[in-house]
Every structure is written in structure tokens, then in C-alpha cells.
């Protein structure tokens, strides 16, 4: 397992379109996912300890962001042939067990992750109402273990600011997580 940090936010970068199958049996597009005030695109997976440590907070924060007009979508781009825990069937089970308030999509070709420049799980891309990048930071201070219950909610606060002002915070702490598991033939 390789631990990586995300690059600094490149403010204003336009969102990248996608059409990916979800665990609910639907094909989801960018237009179906975006919210009135913005969109949070999250690259996650099932096996990563960094993701497991924040799942309950991620569900909480995305529910609250939805109430502010910011919708969320999660994309799993790992190679499930190498990590069985990341299989589509296991994605369905995790989404159901955790009661995800957002679509959970599979990027089988890994083209969407490459287009976004995703590097790790979790990797967060927060866009404003004009679908311009405003946040590329962490959820909170959690690492492989959850941070304290009173930890600052970096992602939630940043995306709430985006919902209200259209702009993300100038100071952002990069997300940290496991590297995306690229298919050998696509590397």
C-alpha cells in the first residue's frame, strides 16, 4: 500500500464530464449528479483504511452538504481484479450498509480517474455552481484512524463556503490516502 497526498487545488479548473454505472443499476452523468450550488466528486474505494476511517463522517457531511445545495458522487477506480474487496458486488454492499446519500459509481476503464488526475483514495474535488474547481483537500485530520470527534471539518466547511460564496478557501490541507490501484496494462 502506497500512501500519497493530493496536489494543491488548481482553482477554476472545469469539471470533467462522465457517464458511469452505479451500484443502483443506473448510469449516472455529471448533469444528473450536480447540485444547484456545486458538486463534490470523491474518489473512494472499499478496501482503503483511510476511506474506512472516514466513512461515517463522509456520509454525515455529504448529507449536510446536500441540504446546502451541494450534491456528491463517489467513484471507485481501483482494479478489482487485484483488490477483491473493491468488486462491484462489494461496492453495492458497502453503499447499502453505510446508507450512502450519493451515487456510488465504478470507473472500470479508469479513464475518469485519469482525466481528473485522481491520485489516491480518498481524493476530493469540490466544484462551485459554475462547476469550477474550488477545493482539493482532506475531509478532516483523519488518517488510517478517525480523528477526534471534535476535529475541524475541513471539507464540509470548505464546501459550505463554496455553496455560499462560489469560492473555496485559499488554504487547503491535501487529502492523504492509498494510491489508486491502476491496471497493469493501463499504467
Automatic annotation (TrEMBL):
A molecular-function term among this protein's GO annotations: antioxidant activity
Residue intervals of the Thioredoxin domain: 9-161
Family annotation (Pfam families): AhpC-TSA
Protein name, as recorded: AhpC/TSA family protein
Organism, scientific name: Thiogranum longum
